[in-house]
Design brief:
The chain is mostly helical and 106 residues long. Helices cover 78% and strands 0% of the residues.
Amino acid sequence: MLLAAAALTLLLALAHSYLGERYVLVRLFRRGQLPQLFGATDFTRRTLRFAWHLTSLAWLGLAALLVTLNTREPSRAERGAILAGTFGISGVFALIGSRGRHLSWV
């Protein structure tokens, strides 16, 4: 059951990112009514895109935890490594996506 849950969570993450890009973000960005943060809408677009995909990344971290729970009880170090990796990747994406201007990378 845990592997099935992990697989479904992985599919959910992939569908969320793909369908969000295709049907939500692209249409939102075409409207042209985005606020100008830091002087331009480009930063707003990157921030919205990052926030959308951050949800998918969190689900991937959850899927990894579910996989480890399926085989055995993961140690505190293993759980911590998965969580740290998930947050670390989130921070790197925020740093690159905002070019360091959005402080969520910290």
